[in-house]
């Protein structure tokens, strides 16, 4: 039988799978000799068993008994003992932190007898009754599923009777009465009495924590954060310490550095005479941590000491929860802290400079997603100066967000679904607001510090957030808030919030490029002094030095090619030639399609060729000396013709007077109409069916290259044939292509070189890659089509229709169009790469689907041994960084 329970002295920080993050780190701190209240952890394995079978695994209760007895003897008192009760908290803690997503119950062990024991031991009646009512409240809500508002309302009523707004004014008698009221609420709404047996309390709370793994908001959060669904949570049983024992007690949270900027210093919030959940919930206003120095110097100094110990030990920024009980400091939690993207880059370089980590580790400490966040635009400084500033709150999560004000999560979701940008405004958020936060451009709260729910969750999602804007009076019921000076902002009004400065503006403030983008554009230098730019530069340089994969761009015009090159592209991996057939040239394509004789067709092709040639010259110039992969025309021809229904109506309405040209067009549209265009006449099939089409394109490429060479340039064209499923298709096109290259060489007297290769985007191509490589000098995986053809669904049709259901069911954790499906599509990629190279050692292989800019997919491409990934110009820095990280 596995071991299901670990004392805090038995675990360590590397056991997160088993003990969850909280448990593993409580154990680590215990073993570092830091003051952690004793306790033990029930493993995630026990949770998984419980969730699967609905009962606790055999032997677990006995194991808990043994550990509880040991804890009781350490503490010198029994759980719920009438004259001197041991109280514990029952705390959730999964492998990945899910702030506020799951449940915790404090003060387990109190009942009608032990409340007197607690009062006598503490010498404080009020404290004991307050703790007892908190237990019933938390237990009622969490374990017995009673609407939390019922308890809140009873508490408000008690305060009203006293004529106060503050809990502090309630006395022992008030809390004792409240305990009575709360018990009544439990009886009425749970259909049972509040359990007075301490051990039963603990068991029920444990199971409730297990169950909270599958709470709706936890499921939604996991999906958002891509956390696997089947990990389960551990449960930590931790002896209670009390921050609500008077003004010499209190509770707080802290970071070892600023999670928004990375700056070293004292960052945190403290609340006197309170229990932990009061701070995290942002219910009462906290004081900045520095003020603790005046309140309790000894604890303050000890805390700073411990923070330094933790930073050096974890070699990273940590966040912590602590409580002071009558002048004695206790550590209740630590973990490597969540941080903004900018802070991640800065902290990585600071730790590197401090010698705590090496350069490889610094690159491991940041992600492509974080880099992508830093490339978002921000407010134009001059315009922001001009704008009406409503207030300034805390800069909780950076970015510039503009949108219509909404006050509820439901409304946020509703308007976002209609394509509106919204800003969710709340007094404070709680886990029920998650869907609204996901839907909104940004979040604004009037209460709570940088560690409030809104701040933590928004940072995790990379969503702009301003919190604790205390000057705002938010009235959710009325659907409006007022700012200083009496400005009232109602639902639907537009505001702009700056998560980097904390400022809130009325109306829309224009946004501008981020400094990181300006750095990649070459407009800002690393030496110009911006610390963030410097950090990005250092880590990018290191990543580039490590990367084995090259990064190319998907670009089909000179402007994009130039930008891609500035952003560090090492060539073009996909130039889509059909994009060159749009706009004014559409008519020429129409002529080509409508041609009735070879002469007419040739005339149309002859008209297109010089235009194509011009395009290629521009791109070769921008990418001089670097490979440019040009894909011959891919989509079905009807995409260049008018819509069937529209044209039919037009011709029908015109009757006899219909334009003969329209009639011919309509005929062509009918002729080319396909039930499944994705699987129809396109790609290489088109090239083989419409004589001269591919040849025209190849000639344009070859002549453009010849022209560049004559002008002293160094063009490196690679001609790519799309949608090949059989080597015979490729052979036919290849022969033609070679002939044209030879003709151009002959005519121009210039030695034009071009590689001829193919896309691998059909399962058959992947499975016969060994044969195809006979005729291909390179492969490029078109993973968009390969995903569609492997799964047998068309992207345009399925994403709206059933993907969200599939994600809910866990059929995939993330859309296979976003992150390459390793098991299925990835397997085909592996087979094709291996068998292609077996035929033609040194075969150049890349990927040009949208996956080329997705971090996880980049790592996969590295593992499979591809030569390059290709992605849109703006994703290039992300792909470069991930290519480097994959090699570390
Ligand atoms: P979360 O994961 O949501 O932060 P926690 O398990 O950390 O939940 O607990 C919620 C709050 O209760 C925190 O502020 C924590 O510090 C406090 N807390 C938990 N256990 C104890 C304890 N044994 N004594 C005092 N406070 C506690
Ligand atoms: Mg916590
Ligand atoms: Mg394709």
UniProtKB/TrEMBL annotation:
Residues 535-884 form the PEP-utilising enzyme C-terminal domain. The active site is at 453 (tele-phosphohistidine intermediate), 848 (proton donor). Its EC number is 2.7.9.1. InterPro entries: ATP_grasp_subdomain_1 (IPR013815), PEP-util_enz_mobile_dom (IPR008279), PEP_util_AS (IPR018274), PEP_util_C (IPR000121), Phosphohistidine_dom_sf (IPR036637), PPDK_AMP/ATP-bd (IPR002192), Pyruvate_phosphate_dikinase (IPR010121), Pyrv/PenolPyrv_kinase-like_dom (IPR015813). Residues 420-502 form the PEP-utilising enzyme mobile domain. Its cofactor is Mg(2+). Residues 56-285, 293-343 form the Pyruvate phosphate dikinase AMP/ATP-binding domain. SUPFAM superfamilies: Glutathione synthetase ATP-binding domain-like (SSF56059), Phosphoenolpyruvate/pyruvate domain (SSF51621), Phosphohistidine domain (SSF52009). Mg(2+) binds at residues 761, 785. GO terms for molecular function: ATP binding; kinase activity; metal ion binding; pyruvate, phosphate dikinase activity. It catalyses: pyruvate + phosphate + ATP = phosphoenolpyruvate + AMP + diphosphate + H(+). Gene3D superfamilies: 1.20.80.30, ATP-grasp fold, A domain, ATP-grasp fold, B domain, Phosphoenolpyruvate-binding domains, Phosphohistidine domain, Pyruvate Phosphate Dikinase, domain 2. Keywords: ATP-binding, Kinase, Magnesium, Metal-binding, Nucleotide-binding, Pyruvate, Transferase. Substrate binds at residues 576, 631, 761, 782-785. Coiled coil: none annotated. It is an enzyme of class 2 (transferase). Belongs to the PEP-utilizing enzyme family. This is Pyruvate, phosphate dikinase. The gene is ppdK.
């Amino acid at each position: 039988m596995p071991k299901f329970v670990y004392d805090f002295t038995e675990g360590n920080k590397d056991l997160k799978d088993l003990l969850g993050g909280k448990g593993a780190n409580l154990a680590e701190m215990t073993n570092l000799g830091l003051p952690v209240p004793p306790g033990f952890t029930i493993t995630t394995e026990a949770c998984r068993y419980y969730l699967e079978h609905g009962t606790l695994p055999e032997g677990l209760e006995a194991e808990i008994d043994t550990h509880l007895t040991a804890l009781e003897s350490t503490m010198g008192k029994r759980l719920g003992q009438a004259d001197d009760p041991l109280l514990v908290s029952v705390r959730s803690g999964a492998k990945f932190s899910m702030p506020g997503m799951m449940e915790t119950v404090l003060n387990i062990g109190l009942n009608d007898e032990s409340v007197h024991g607690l009062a006598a031991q503490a010498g404080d009646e009020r404290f004991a009754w307050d703790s007892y009512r908190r237990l019933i409240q938390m237990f009622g809500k969490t374990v017995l599923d009673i609407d939390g508002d019922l308890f809140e309302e009873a508490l408000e009523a008690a305060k009203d009777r006293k004529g106060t707004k503050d809990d502090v004014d309630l006395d022992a008698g008030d809390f004792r009465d409240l305990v009575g009221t709360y018990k009544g609420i439990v009886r009425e709404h749970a259909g049972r009495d509040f359990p007075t047996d301490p051990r039963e309390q603990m068991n029920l709370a444990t199971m409730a924590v297990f169950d909270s793994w599958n709470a709706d908001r936890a499921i939604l959060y996991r999906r958002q954060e891509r956390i696997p669904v089947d990990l389960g949570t551990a449960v930590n049983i931790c002896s209670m310490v009390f921050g609500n024992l008077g003004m010499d007690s209190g509770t707080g949270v802290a970071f070892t550095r600023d999670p928004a900027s990375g700056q070293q210093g004292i960052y945190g919030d403290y609340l006197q005479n309170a229990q932990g959940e009061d701070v995290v919930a942002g219910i009462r206003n906290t004081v900045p941590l520095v003020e603790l120095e005046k309140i309790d110097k000894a604890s303050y100094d000890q805390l700073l000491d411990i923070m330094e110990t933790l930073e050096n030990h974890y070699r990273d920024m940590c966040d912590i929860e602590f409580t002071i009980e009558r002048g004695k400091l206790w550590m209740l939690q630590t973990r490597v802290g969540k941080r903004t993207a900018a802070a991640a880059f800065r902290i990585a370089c600071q730790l590197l400079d401090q010698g705590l980590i090496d350069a490889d580790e610094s690159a491991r400490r940041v992600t492509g997603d974080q880099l992508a966040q830093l490339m978002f635009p921000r407010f134009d400084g001059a315009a922001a100066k001009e704008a009406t500033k409503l207030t300034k709150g805390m800069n909780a999560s950076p970015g510039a967000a503009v949108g219509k004000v909404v006050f509820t999560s439901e409304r946020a979701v509703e308007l976002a679904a209609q394509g509106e940008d919204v800003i969710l405004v709340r007094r404070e958020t709680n886990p029920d607001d998650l869907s609204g936060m996901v839907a909104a451009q940004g979040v604004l709260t009037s209460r709570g510090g940088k560690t409030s729910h809104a701040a933590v969750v928004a940072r995790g999602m990379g969503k702009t957030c301003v919190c604790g804007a205390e000057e705002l009076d938010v009235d959710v019921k009325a659907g409006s808030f007022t700012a200083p000076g009496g400005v009232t902002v109602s639902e639907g009004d537009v505001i702009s919030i700056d998560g980097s400065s904390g400022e809130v503006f009325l109306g829309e403030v224009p946004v501008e490029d981020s400094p990181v983008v300006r750095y990649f554009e070459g407009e800002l230098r690393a030496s110009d002094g911006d610390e963030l730019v410097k950090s990005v530069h250092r880590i990018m340089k290191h990543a580039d030095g490590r990367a084995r994969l090259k990064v190319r761009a998907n670009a089909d015009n000179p402007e994009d090619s130039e930008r891609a090159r500035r952003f560090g592209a090492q060539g073009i991996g996909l130039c889509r030639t059909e994009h060159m057939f749009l706009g004014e040239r559409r008519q020429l394509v129409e002529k080509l399609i409508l041609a009735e004789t070879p002469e007419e067709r040739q005339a149309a092709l002859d008209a297109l060729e010089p235009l194509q040639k011009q395009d290629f010259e521009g791109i070769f110039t921008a990418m001089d000396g670097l490979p440019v992969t040009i894909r011959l025309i891919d989509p079905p021809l009807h995409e260049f013709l008018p819509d069937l229904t529209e044209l039919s109506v037009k011709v029908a309405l015109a009757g006899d007077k219909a334009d003969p040209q329209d009639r011919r067009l309509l005929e062509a549209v009918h002729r080319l109409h396909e039930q499944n265009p994705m699987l129809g006449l396109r790609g290489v099939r088109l090239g083989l069916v419409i004589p001269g089409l591919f040849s025209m394109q190849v000639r344009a490429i070859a002549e453009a290259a010849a022209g560049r060479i004559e002008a002293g340039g160094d063009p490196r064209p690679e001609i790519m044939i799309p949608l090949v499923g059989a080597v015979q298709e490729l052979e036919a096109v290849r022969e033609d292509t070679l002939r044209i290259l030879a003709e151009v060489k002959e005519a121009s007297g210039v030695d034009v070189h071009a590689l001829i290769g193919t896309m691998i985007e059909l399962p058959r191509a992947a499975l016969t890659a060994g044969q195809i490589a006979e005729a291909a000098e390179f492969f490029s995986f078109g993973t968009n089509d390969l995903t569609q053809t492997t799964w047998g669904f068309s992207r345009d049709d399925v994403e709206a229709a059933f993907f969200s259901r599939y994600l809910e069911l866990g059929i995939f954790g993330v859309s296979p169009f976003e992150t390459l499906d390793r098991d299925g599509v990835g397997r085909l990629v592996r087979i094709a790469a291996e068998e292609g190279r077996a035929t033609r050692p040194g075969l150049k292989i890349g990927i040009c689907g949208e996956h080329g800019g997705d971090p996880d997919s980049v790592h996969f491409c590295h593992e499979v041994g591809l030569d390059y990934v290709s992605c849109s110009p703006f994703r290039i820095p992300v792909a470069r960084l991930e290519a480097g990280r994959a090699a570390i």
